[in-house]
Amino acid sequence: MTSNQFWRLNHHPQGTDFAGALSLESETLAPLAQGQVRVATHWLSMDAGTRMWMGPRTDGYQPPLPLGTAMVGLVLGRVSESRDPAFPEGALVRGFGQWAEVATMDPALSGLTVLDDTVADPRAHFGELGMNAWTAYVGVKEVAAAKPGEWLVVSAAAGATGSLVCQVARNLGVRVIGMAGGPEKCRYLTEELGAEIAIDYKAEDVAARLAAVPGGVHAYFDNVGGPLLDAVLPNMAHYGRVAVCGLVAGYNSDEPLPGPARFDQVLMRRLRIEGFFIPDFLHRGAEFMPVLREWMDAGKLKVRFDETVGIENVLVGYDRMLSGKNIGKAIVKVAR
Ligand SMILES: NC(=O)c1ccc[n+]([C@@H]2O[C@H](COP(=O)([O-])OP(=O)(O)OC[C@H]3O[C@@H](n4cnc5c(N)ncnc54)[C@H](OP(=O)(O)O)[C@@H]3O)[C@@H](O)[C@H]2O)c1
User: Fold this and answer.
1) What is the pTM of this model?
2) Are residues 135 and 275 in the same domain?
3) Top mutation candidate among 57, 185, 199, 248 for ligand 1, by most atoms within 8 Å of CB
4) Which 8-state DSSP code applies to residue 258?
5) If you average pLDDT over every residue of the chain, what do you get?
6) Which domain holds residue 21?
7) Which residues line ligand 1 (CB under 6 A)?
């Protein structure tokens, strides 16, 4: 295929006006350069963190994408053309590439990885075996350092990262409290993900619910920041740990999210707060994968997909995820 469709970032989005900032474009693919690989996209991953790449801020963990270039995210697909022998034609791969029918990648820069093609549903490479699962595993086990019998709270608990956090923690014997928006998500947390307590943060007094946790909260896996962090901090146990994974409450603004109003509790309760970013852990994949695979095969790690179909509908899928309409992992099926 020499023609290609891709999403171009034209402007920094105002809030959630993605249609006003990105457009679907057609191009003719240039000849592939030495060392490059082309991937026919089967699925695109819709990740909350990519919202920061669309904005103008230069103090984030990734530089902003230049305006006028293709939007980038995680791509799962098959190599359609290759000038790198490590990525032969037909191989199932995952890496950071353009939101496009065909993504052209430089393997070293895009973190391109050949995947296990024997997994029954290849979407697992965006789910139980994907980056959100690695994030959940590192965050729960190492950053939040949650131990069996302790209480761990997680926000955005019914989303991709959060739903995996609930299950990883449960599998490690940690007691889980999930916070999510709406009763359907809360049922999902307790009925399918092993949370003992679910809090509908849109309808309930979060601080009051957490105040009733016996002994306080030992670990907080924070995907959100903002008012939820303020509700959690005064309800932490002494020597508790906060793993700052994401600050989605602030992603639709070009301004940094204000810091916690209850920062005093860090001293009063002798808390440790630590941010982490999964690309810093990519070299440790071989360590995480056997554990995740074993849990998946044993039915102890399951991901629900919120799948939107069609390259033309990418912004629909993206908006579903950032506005919380998704339960589980938001993806877009590109190849039909
Ligand atoms: N540090 C890392 O390396 C790393 C890696 C992966 C993901 N993350 C972070 O993990 C978080 C989740 O990302 P994801 O890609 O897995 O997306 P996701 O959780 O599948 O989807 C985003 C969810 O965020 C919730 N949300 C949106 N706005 C909110 C607000 N103002 N207050 C509370 N909740 C809100 C929504 O659920 P509700 O209905 O519950 O509101 C929505 O479903 C993000 O902060 C992301 O940056 C970090």
Assistant:
1) 0.98
2) yes
3) 248
4) P
5) 97
6) 3-127+304-333
7) 47-49, 132, 135, 156, 158-162, 180-181, 185, 223-224, 245-249, 276-278, 321, 324, 326, 330
